[in-house]
Amino acid sequence: MSFTFIKGLFLNPAKLSITAFIIIIAELVLNILIVERVPYTEIDWKAYMQECEGFLNGTLDYSQLRGDTGPLVYPAGFVYIYSMFYFLTNQGQNIKLAQYIFIGIYLLQLHFVFEIYKKTRKVPPYVLLITILTSYRIHSIHVLRLFNDPIAVLFLYIALNYFIESKWNLGSIFYSLGVSIKMNILLYAPALFFFYLVNLGLKDTIKQIFLCGLIQLILGLPFLLVAPISYLRGSFDIGRVFNHTWTVNYRFLDVKVFENTYFHITLLAIHILLLMIFLPMCIQYFKSYCRLRYVQKQVQPQIDAKNVENKRKAKMMKEKLKVQENEEKLTKDQEEFLNSFESMLQKTSNTNAKKKKVADESEKLHYSINFDIISQLFILPMFLTNFIGVVCARSLHYQFYSWYFHSLPYLLWSTNLSVIVRFLILALIEFCWNTYPSTNATSAMLHVCHLIILYNIYKKTSTELKVASKVE
């Protein structure tokens, strides 16, 4: 194993497959150690089980489904999944088994995250290695707290992979399933809507939206038939006021200001404003994505046909060389030639040279274009739209870190910031999320880090689009 190969594993995004496998194995071991050695802390799991127990006992009125932490505030998909956990874990009593289930969920999520990073080839493997393995908070969220956020995010990453593969129906189904577990997945909706529109046109966009809505209707039907208002208010309550005690991003605000309706309206206005600023850029990216996918459809069959033809020619060359070697072995001169050790080495050298030449010619005749890298034009707008939602969130609780943690390296490597500054921002964000309870300083610092990322993405993408428009 050469130094160049090892170096590539850490620095070359094209080599991420091997590094990703190493990370997943390391994460498996690390998470098992965490489960076995770090005490579990009860926060919401018991309440989840109580809410699902009410459903399993026949209660279909959402206003009557409650736990120790309050009423049920998640859509129907959450109820079904955690009801399954209820049965698997002996009515929620077998916490250790639940933690191992969540290890599986986290590793599966990592697989789909890595699939995105492998296709986009944007971020060096060492960045993901360092970021993922060293995050205390993200491991805590997944295997020590058992929140529903990671499950919703898992379905989201599955959906993104299907969208990259142009499997629209499957993408829409898994996206809607993510929304059915926790509505934060709707933060991706503005970008997804325009992605549908640019790629599919209005008619098929309406079909995909209908499919997403149909999934919600089917899942929520038992509750909608009994108490539709209670279900809609409980599972999709956009006006819910968060508890200031748990806030990570607005600790520096007075409680009265934090809970003030005008403060919430202001944040919503800022959210809409930022979307209006960034969505035109996102649409340009989507248009470029659509055009390049069209080019791929036209060119790829020709490339494949040419490679098949070249492969056939290379095979014929190898067979011809093999025949020549066999013929040489049958001659008297060749037999005498083999009696000499020195001559034998010379023959081997010449034969290998011929084989190498054939192999080199075969390699030269192989054509390929890495169309997967086009995925960058889809992934950045999606991650960016979600990030804007996080930046403008009325409150961020500790489990919300999972909403955007795995997209942070991608966002930072989409800026022109130096590598040192990028890692500094990642470290500061991790520090803010690891500080409990949050402080005025950490809350302010989190906002500063978010705004630096947002500004630098805007700066880089706007410059690139200006250059692209001049070229066109």
From TrEMBL:
Catalytic reaction list: an alpha-D-Man-(1->2)-alpha-D-Man-(1->2)-alpha-D-Man-(1->3)-[alpha-D-Man-(1->6)]-beta-D-Man-(1->4)-beta-D-GlcNAc-(1->4)-alpha-D-GlcNAc-diphospho-di-trans,poly-cis-dolichol + a di-trans,poly-cis-dolichyl beta-D-mannosyl phosphate = an alpha-D-Man-(1->2)-alpha-D-Man-(1->2)-alpha-D-Man-(1->3)-[alpha-D-Man-(1->3)-alpha-D-Man-(1->6)]-beta-D-Man-(1->4)-beta-D-GlcNAc-(1->4)-alpha-D-GlcNAc-diphospho-di-trans,poly-cis-dolichol + a di-trans,poly-cis-dolichyl phosphate + H(+)
Give the EC number(s) under which this enzyme is classified: 2.4.1.258
Q: In which pathway does it act?
A: Protein modification; protein glycosylation
Q: How does it sit in the membrane?
A: Multi-pass membrane protein
Subcellular location, record wording: Endoplasmic reticulum membrane
User: What's one Pfam family here?
Assistant: ALG3
**UniProt main location, coarse:** endoplasmic reticulum
| Annotated transmembrane regions | 16-35, 72-88, 100-117, 146-164, 184-202, 209-231, 262-283, 377-398, 410-429
| Keyword check for Cytoplasm | no
Q: Which residues form a coiled coil?
A: 307-336
GO molecular function list: dol-P-Man:Man(5)GlcNAc(2)-PP-Dol alpha-1,3-mannosyltransferase activity
Give the protein's recorded name: dolichyl-P-Man:Man5GlcNAc2-PP-dolichol alpha-1,3-mannosyltransferase
Q: What keywords does the record list, in alphabetical order?
A: Coiled coil, Endoplasmic reticulum, Glycosyltransferase, Membrane, Transferase, Transmembrane, Transmembrane helix
- One GO term describing the cellular component: endoplasmic reticulum membrane
